Amino acid sequence: MKIKNCHEAVRPLLGLPPHHHRHMRLQAGSRAIFSRKASSAVRILEVGPRDGLQNIRTQVPTATKIELIKKLAATGLTDIEATSFVSPKWVPQLADGAEVMHHILNLGSQNDLRFSVLAPNLKGFENAFRAGAKEVVVFASATEAFSKKNQNCTVEQALDAARAVVKQAKQNNLWVRGVVSCIFSDPYSGPTDPRDVLYVVEQFVDMGCDEIGLGDTLGVGTPKRTQTLLEVLLKAVPADKLTGHFHDTYGQAVANVLRAYELGLRTFDSSIAGLGGCPYAPGAKGNAATEDIVYAFENSGIDTGIDLQKLATVGDWISRQLGLPNNSRAGAALVAKRQDQEPPKPQPTSLNSQSVAEKSQAKSAEQASSRTWTVEKQTSGYIVSRAANAVKITLAQPKNGNAMTTEMLESLTRLFKDLSTDRAVFHIVLAAEGRFFCTGMDLTGNSRDNSSSYHDKIVDLFAAIDNAPQTVIAAIQGPCFGGGVGLCFVCDVRLASPEARWTLSEVKLGMSPAIISKYMAREWGFSFFREAMLSGRTVTPEELSRIGVVHGISETKDKLDLMVDSYLDRLAHCAPQAAATCKQLVRNAFTGPGSPEQDKFIRRTFDNMLAPGSEGQYGIQQFQQKIKKVDWGYFWARLQSKL
Ligand SMILES: CC(C)(COP(=O)([O-])OP(=O)([O-])OC[C@H]1O[C@@H](n2cnc3c(N)ncnc32)[C@H](O)[C@@H]1OP(=O)([O-])[O-])[C@@H](O)C(=O)NCCC(=O)NCCSC(=O)C[C@@](C)(O)CC(=O)[O-]
User: Fold this and answer.
1) The complex's ipTM?
2) Per-residue pLDDT tens for 423-462?
3) Could you tell me how far CA 109 lies from the centroid of its own chain?
4) 543 in the same domain as 397
5) Range with lowest mean pLDDT among 71-85, 330-344, 432-446
6) What is the Cα–Cα distance from 143 to 131, expressed in whole angstroms?
7) Do residue 530 and residue 635 come from a single domain?
8) Is 440 in the pocket of ligand 1 (CB under 6 A)?
9) How many domains, the chain?
10) Measured distance CA(192)–CA(575) in Å, rounded
11) What range defines the domain where residue 536 resides?
12) Mutate-to-test residue for ligand 1 from 442, 443, 465, 489, highest number of ligand atoms within 8 A of CB
């Protein structure tokens, strides 16, 4: 055991000799953290955008991080740990810290918002300061083993690095929080001695930190352990200098927060939807969920200044964006309760069966849902964006009406093949920019030096879309010609704007829709297809809606995106693997009706449907538990993360 600088009052308790101390100065310096949020009884420090996102495997797009921070700020949260300034080699997830700060700083100046950032060394501090940070966080472990593994240095070296940052920060009038990790236990060396925690806390106070966070890195704290530690610390350090940062590994986070509150602490870190994890405790949940803590305080008559309903919405939103389970019990329950009370969302309806009432429902469906699509990739031919379990591919070559060039065919085929093995993608939307959805075969001649290979490329793309396990939705904003018509109808669902049109123009060019005929006959039916193909006439959305092959027409072109989002909301309750099987059943029914292969597939599907661990088994369990809308994103995220 190290004998360290311990407070006078505690030293005898710990069997240590007295020595000089700065207790009086501590108390004098501990003023008024609460002046920052005078109206609330407790201060909740949201760490999801930093600590939460850093500890999950998913690489989160910068735009989603910015949006998350904006949404959190709109709930009444005033303290948000926004990002980190550490080497991107260590923490690639937060390499975009400067960009995030750039987009959120103006929020802080408008309201009473404070954004803190992690800056554990001078280099990080310089970058954080350059990015406009006004509050920085430094940290050190209370234990040597964790310090060496996590920071590759001793506790003293970590404190020296922190000291250098604090000195710079104070010279520039920045607020500093020092965080002590492993307050209860170290994953490598076992339980932590409270004296070691006290030592680091005192060092932080001594170097000038404005407050000190107590981090239960492993989440092994219990109310009793919390009390024991705080009884030691509070003899040396005023309660308003300390903040609690509890992890929920054993479901004790809220209990620990409440015990710490009873002992005088008034500031607590937490993470929206319990985002995060603990790399040192396999399978562990992440931080205390902000919704859970706010629920506990608000329902105990302790004001947090935060709108719990809005908070639950944000937790639900970010969980969906990341395709992860919502780890907040309170958040998930509040959202489920709200959904249960809401009237069912109207779905886009084809016009053939639309009554006046249905039309107005479809209109409100278009207004009901809007998701944030985050761009992941941009090529010269298309843009790929993602929202939760859906990927949107937007054709973006309006100059040639999104004609099917060789490059486009090859690259889209690769994309669809890659997506077919991505278990996190349940739905694909194929959309387009410009006047036309797709003008079909590239008629410039540039793409057809070798017509056999061009043929193969079209065949490959259509097969890749048709065989994709995901439900593919064509969002058709404008006219389609030839192969472009085929592109819509190889997709599983068609949602169209009133400006969409379909022209099988091949016959007028002296050609025929050979490759696409396979899909067109299946979807339009022989008679309708034959007439449209022979006449080369323009077919309208109303006609196709009447025969049931266009599944929704938006009120205006602008509202097509909302209709797509609303349709995706509906698909969120459909099991993705079952959906892939449904697609195969249709393919078999078309290519080999009555064949032994069809019967075999049907038999196999039925036999596997309720196997242990299957979607079917889970769906039936949920039904028996009276859960009407199964969250399949949660089911698959849980399977994949083996939580
Ligand atoms: C779309 C309208 C009505 C607009 O007609 P418009 O409004 O008068 O505009 P435009 O004709 O000036 O077109 C705008 C630009 O888009 C280009 N463009 C337009 N279409 C294509 C195309 N396919 N390939 C390459 N470029 C195309 C066109 O060349 C022009 O480029 P610019 O001159 O400004 O540089 C007119 O351009 C048009 O009729 N285009 C041809 C549409 C057509 O008939 N497509 C069917 C192709 S055959 C096919 O797809 C065969 C296949 C695949 O089905 C066979 C099989 O299945 O086996």
Assistant:
1) 0.98
2) 889 999 999 999 999 999 999 987 766 777 999 999 999 9
3) 27
4) yes
5) 330-344
6) 32
7) no
8) yes
9) 3
10) 46
11) 351-571
12) 443
